[in-house]
Amino acid sequence: MQHFINVLLNGITQGIVIAAFALALVLIFRSTRIVNFAQGSQAMFTTYIALTLMNNDFPYWVAFLGALAAGFIIGAVLERVVIRPLEGGMELNIVIATLGLYVAIQALAAILFGSDYKSFSSPVGVQGFQVGDLNLALTPTSIFVICTVGVVVVGLTLLFQKTQLGLTMRAAAFDGEVSRILGVRVSHLLTFGWALAGLVGSVAGILVATGSFIYPSYMESLIAFGFIAAVIGGLDSPIGAVVGGLILGIVNSLVSGYLAPGLVTIGAFVVLIAVLLLKPGGLFSSTQARRV
């Protein structure tokens, strides 16, 4: 019983981290209808910025906010400098550009920060709780991760459903020409969408690093699982990203805990295929939305 409980708790924690990254992907797609393959490299780079601040005696929370600010700025700059000139051409050009950014940012991080493993401390404990005779795979760091992602989910849901800015961003993404005719400054909204996604991606990068080690390619597995989770939930649904992340995290933990760690990737793709066969648009996305 203890093993099952720990496997489940570990899956929930993994799923929450996957969900955080999937949220960043959903933000880009929801506001620009673009899938950003460089999102993981952006998150990795801002995590290194946070670590640099911490190594220079800045508190964890100052470094955390510094990484979020860096993620916001990097997202805006990339949209203006790299993505904006490619708009109006083939959509494949933007996809290739984001893949190029993925490689370039990772290489830049290796040059600036080195390729060695570096410890990233946690602001809270990493020792698991004990309930009676049970040693739970649940730590204060896990609770911190869960609560942080919860705040992000609530904030994004309120932004897109309850604010004029969020509704305008969605309208501009679905039909930019009509939005321009109505006086909406679409270019500014697209930049803000990339910036906001960069900020959320930075949250994911820090959460997966907290209490662990980082190196230039430490986000690679999370990138793959984040894309799968976003597609499972529906690329235009923040709630779907969270549900998809939780499903994937629990499945991955069950496969690793009861079968073999080497089968985790296969298990993830089996879940993806099963969901797409039942609902091609994802669990929380309508077919109409996905065709746009």
Features:
mainly alpha; ABC transporter involved in vitamin B12 uptake, BtuC
Q: Which architecture would the CATH scheme give at its second level?
A: Orthogonal Bundle
Q: Please mark out the parts with pLDDT under 50 across 5 or more consecutive residues, or reply none.
A: 287-292
Helical proportion, percent range:
over 70%
Number of helices: 12
Give the ordered list of helices and strands.
HHHHEEEHHHHEHHHH
Strand order, largest beta sheet? 1-4
Number of domains: 1
Q: Averaging pLDDT over every residue, what do you get?
A: 85
CATH topology: ABC transporter involved in vitamin B12 uptake, BtuC
How far is the N terminus from the C terminus?
47 Å
Q: What structural category do the secondary elements indicate?
A: mainly alpha
> Could you say which overall geometry the principal axes of the C-alpha atoms support?
globular
CATH class: Mainly Alpha
Membrane topology: Multi-pass membrane protein
GO molecular function, one term: transmembrane transporter activity
GO biological process, one term: amino acid transport
Protein name: Branched-chain amino acid ABC transporter permease
